[in-house]
Structures are given as C-alpha cells and as structure tokens.
Amino acid sequence: MIKGFVAGEEFARWYATARQMAIAHGIEVGELDWLLQGWTDLDRLTLRLQDFSRRQISLREPWDNVQQGWQKRVEEKYPVQYLLGHTQWRNFDLKVTSDVLIPRPETELIIDIVQNQSDQWGLRDPSGHWVDLGTGSGALALGLASLFPHALVHGVDCSAPALAIARENAQRHQLGDRIQFHQGHWWEPLGHLRGQVQGMVSNPPYIPQAELPQLQPEVINHEPLLALDGGADGLQAVEQLIRRSPAYLKPGGFWLVEIMAGQAPIVAELLRKNGTYQDIHIHRDLAGIERFVSARTLG
Ligand SMILES: C[S@@+](CC[C@H](N)C(=O)[O-])C[C@H]1O[C@@H](n2cnc3c(N)ncnc32)[C@H](O)[C@@H]1O
C-alpha cells in the first residue's frame, strides 16, 4: 500500500546523508538498500545507480518513518528485520517483531539435516508427530510441516507473544491446520504425546551468561533475552532436552539441537553418558562450525 511520495531530489540528498551515517557507524551500506527496497518502490539496480533525481518515489511507509527508522538502525543498532517486520527464512517470508529471535540462515540447515537423516533411517512415518521446542517465530515448525506433508507438527514456547507471531506465520503460509502451538516449558505441554513423537528439533538459548554482554548490540539490546540466555555454561536448556526427550520420543526417534561453536563435543558426550541415545552425530554449518548435534533414541 502506498503511504506517500517523496521528490527524487529530496530523496537523493537524504540518501547521500544516510549512506554517510552507515559508514560512520560501521553498518553495511547494503542494509540501507535492503530497508529501502521494503519501504519504497525502488529496486536494487536503481538504488545502486542512485538514479533518483528525475522521478517521484512512492513510499510504503510515511517519509518521516523512513528517516526515523534508518536513524534507529544506525544510532540504536535496531535490526533491519524488526524495522521491516519480516524476514526471509528458507522459502518462507516470516513476520518478526522484537518478541521473537530473528531466524538465522544457519538454522535453515536443520531442515536439510532432518531430511537427510530421516531418509537414512526411514523416519517418514506419515502420521508422525514432529516437535519444535522453543519455536520463536515458528520457523522450524513451518520447515518441518512443509518437509513432512502428513505429519502433525507441534511448536512449543514459553513466550505467549512469540507464539502469537508463530501462529500468524503458520496461517500466512497455509500451515495453520498442520501445526499445533503450545505454551509452556519444553516438553511440559506435550504430556499427551509421551512415547509417540517421531522427532524433535530445537534451537534453544545457548549463550553462556558471562558471554551475553559481548554479543553485538543488535542482538543483546533488541532480541529477547529468553531466546539467548543459556544459563551459566550455556547448556542449561540442552541438558534438559537430553534428559527429558527419551520419555516423549518413540524408540528410534530423532533428536537434534543447534548449539554454539565449542559446545558440540560436550553435548555429544552428554548424550553418550545419558545411555538412551544412539547414532550421535555432530554436523557443521556452512561456515564449517560444529553447529548441530543429532541422535536417535535406542530401540
Ligand atoms: C534461540 S530462540 C529460537 C527460536 C526459533 N526456533 C529459531 O530458531 O529462530 C529460543 C526460543 O526458546 C524459547 N524458550 C526459552 N526458554 C524456554 C523454555 N523454558 N521453554 C520453552 N521455550 C523456551 C524462547 O522464547 C525462544 O523463542
């Protein structure tokens, strides 16, 4: 929807200043173009050529909001995705607000790993239950629902505002009747599924508390602390997921978590020590970081 217009010459003057602001604050100039592609009718090429002066530019946000939005990005380090209100993740355009973690590109790989491993182990039970614990925006739940067209997917989060966004995202992508969302702590709201779950994935909070202040201001000042804080060693949530999952998964059920660099060997060891898991694997992300650990329950 068009919410206003700005003359090309005025826009050109502002754009030059906005670029300088980005450079002075160490922000990629590309982020400005990304925001403007969402908020104006300008395309990438026109922005690159800075070919504004002979035209009137249509705005999808009032001109004041565009200018203030960029100022907020630069001065407060407010993420572009929250300004735009949505982001691309796999083939989904997802609504995001500061109530949810912005889904990351590396997390997309979880769906590929699930696909590969479930092919390998014949986990494609058409009536299976799949679970995304700590669903946030619902990204992984949507990914699972599109990967397994006959499965019932459950997304759990303890944050009510996050679940509202996740529900909206599921509906936006016509997956509302394939995903059930539940509010509560990890497995707690899924008591009715004990012993019946085909697979679970989770991208839990995993940052050790002492490292939180070193995160980029975009992350620590604007993304939900609940999505980041992994307790003293960062593994508080992961340990619970290791301990509790065997009671809910079917024999041979799939288990996978995302973790941060350096945690994979510890998580693999915790799974081994637990004694109810087999086929424990560490998977790297595209940057070569050991980012995911998967396993299956015995049986
Ligand atoms: C790192 S975010 C992941 C969000 C989303 N799955 C993604 O990958 O983009 C972790 C999520 O776990 C949720 N969470 C934190 N503690 C939880 C708990 N005890 N029970 C359920 N969810 C929890 C947070 O609210 C947050 O949405």
TrEMBL record:
Annotated EC: 2.1.1.297
Reaction catalysis annotation: L-glutaminyl-[peptide chain release factor] + S-adenosyl-L-methionine = N(5)-methyl-L-glutaminyl-[peptide chain release factor] + S-adenosyl-L-homocysteine + H(+)
Domain annotation Methyltransferase small: ranges: 126-211
Gene3D superfamilies assigned: Vaccinia Virus protein VP39
Keywords noted in UniProt: Methyltransferase, S-adenosyl-L-methionine, Transferase
Classification via InterPro entries: DNA_methylase_N6_adenine_CS, HemK-like, RF_glutamine_MTase_cyano, RF_methyltr_PrmC, SAM-dependent_MTases_sf, Small_mtfrase_dom
PROSITE patterns reported in the protein's UniProt record: N6_MTASE
GO biological process, one term: methylation
GO function term, MF aspect, one: peptide chain release factor N(5)-glutamine methyltransferase activity
Binding locations of substrate: 203-206
Annotated S-adenosyl-L-methionine binding sites: 134-138, 157, 186, 203
Domain of life (superkingdom): Bacteria
Function: Methylates the class 1 translation termination release factors RF1/PrfA and RF2/PrfB on the glutamine residue of the universally conserved GGQ motif.
Sequence similarity: Belongs to the protein N5-glutamine methyltransferase family. PrmC subfamily.
Name used for this protein in its record: Release factor glutamine methyltransferase
